[in-house]
């Protein structure tokens, strides 16, 4: 059976509000990043794919199974929502055991499975620790362990690194990469760095529309001709900002080193600007703002 998720012409409405607008997308094995600003429809798409929310129209299959078969879909999917909470007074082991019971794992297999998962997420030393005593990063890692308890072929993780410190973020991203060797991991984020470090294929959503679907390399290629850098005074900076979209700036004494998106070249000669290779953040911002700039 193919390990892939296929969405064909999928719409999701909340009353009059369209949250997903005619989405066609195929998600294959490995890490897949879903990127977009707040309100883009990322959480909605993830909830539809876990079968927690019904789509309004279109067709979705997961590993060949139609999304409407929610029992089969749920046995195939592990989900770590944005707000993952568990009973804080339980120990890590008790919390995992409770979820293992709910997942229907037999008593004889539970201990081994739980310890294997805690080891995978590097929490095996914390089995007896109360959940409420875990750090933010540890809670997120426990969230992954609980989502993997029934060994799902698809793992869906919503905004997993928000609120984590840089070291915890890297550790968490590495864990997801390891997990993705055996399955589909769909990761949503508005933090471009998370995607850059881990995902080969990405999709960008904005206001329910799919703006981009492809590899990170193609995304960079798409912005190759429009990213420029220049050193400007603070007065010039205000003029640049009124005409172009500035993606980065570093103060250097009286001057400011800037990177910006320039689809038209009108002001470039005055700024002594030179073209530069886009980074993923530049390219993402280009796709997000492209239409508005025209
Ligand atoms: P994201 O996860 O990318 O921030 P969401 O999927 O949460 O985006 O939201 C997409 C859009 O749908 C937003 O405009 C949001 O306000 C709207 N929305 C989300 N959930 C509901 C709901 N339960 N009822 C009405 N509108 C909703």
Essential attributes:
single chain; 294 residues; alpha/beta; six-stranded mixed beta sheet; four-stranded antiparallel beta sheet; 14 strands; globular
Secondary-structure blueprint:
Elements: E1 4-14, E2 17-28, E3 30-35, H1 42-49, E4 57-62, E5 65-66, H2 70-76, E6 77-80, H3 92-102, H4 107-120, H5 136-147, E7 154-158, H6 166-179, E8 184-189, H7 192-198, E9 201-206, E10 209-215, H8 216-222, E11 227-233, H9 234-243, E12 245-252, E13 255-261, H10 268-271, E14 274-275, H11 280-293
Parallel strand pairs: 3-8, 3-9, 6-7, 7-8
Antiparallel strand pairs: 1-2, 1-4, 4-5, 9-10, 11-13, 11-14, 12-13
Helix pairs in contact: 3-4, 5-6, 8-11
Give a brief rundown of this model:
With 294 residues, this protein is an alpha/beta fold. It is built from eleven helices and 14 strands. The protein has helices at 42-49, 70-76, 92-102, 107-120, 136-147, 166-179, 192-198, 216-222, 234-243, 268-271, 280-293, and strands at residues 4-14, 17-28, 30-35, 57-62, 65-66, 77-80, 154-158, 184-189, 201-206, 209-215, 227-233, 245-252, 255-261, 274-275.
| Relative helix content | 25-40%
- Distinct small molecules: adenosine-5'-diphosphate
In whole angstroms, the N-to-C terminal distance is 44 Å
In order across it, which strands form the biggest sheet? Answer: 6-7-8-3-9-10
Order of helices and strands: EEEHEEHEHHHEHEHEEHEHEEHEH
Structural class of the secondary elements?
Answer: alpha/beta
Beta-strand percentage?
A: 25-35%
Describe the biggest sheet? 6 strands, mixed
Oligomeric form of this entry?
single chain
**Contiguous helical run count:** 11
Uncertain segments: none
Radius of gyration, rounded? 22 Å
Shape: globular
Q: Overall mean pLDDT score?
A: 91
Q: What's the total count of β strands?
A: 14
